[in-house]
Amino acid sequence: MDYKSGSIILPLPTEDVLVKREQYWRVELPQSYKDFIKKLNGVKPVKATITYDSHSENIECFLCILDSTKDNINAARLDIDVVMSPRIERMGYEEDSIGVHVLPIAKMDYGNYLALDYKDGDSNPTVCVWDNEESGDFEPVTYFVANSFEEFLDMLK
Questions:
Q1: Which of 27, 70, 142, 152 is 20 to 30 Å from the Cα of 55, by its Cα?
Q2: 78 Cβ partners below 8 Å, 6+ apart?
Q3: What pLDDT is attached to residue 86?
Q4: CATH (one of 1.10.10, 1.10.1740, 3.40.1580, 3.30.980) for 15-155
Q5: Which strand ranges, in their side-by-side order, compose the sheet holding 113-117?
């Protein structure tokens, strides 16, 4: 995947930061995603078009993972936790629940998100488009994209 020069958001997340996020979200991130985010945190692809359910949509940028949003105020709006906050409230996430079911990882056209889909309880999430507009309270509307993050990355080649 080609990406825009200077679009990587620093500081890059460390393994410790990723472990903290996994514990907070109560999910296990795919190793391929962890490897990706450790190198390409918040990157903007030159062109990345995803086709799903007879739609095509572009990825504007991948979301980032910051240890502290104070580290980079300009990038804070693209931090996964910041993006998720209002959506978690809307989806009815509770502290006692089993964890995040749909984890946004990239911002797409039309206000949608590319996401890791943990809804089936599998530790190997699929990749989906989370339709922000069609989703209702407690009901995320998603469209399948790939069986794994690795398969998704292969689609971008």
A1: 27
A2: 9, 42, 61, 63, 64, 107
A3: 53
A4: 3.40.1580
A5: 49-52, 55-62, 102-108, 113-117, 126-136, 139-146
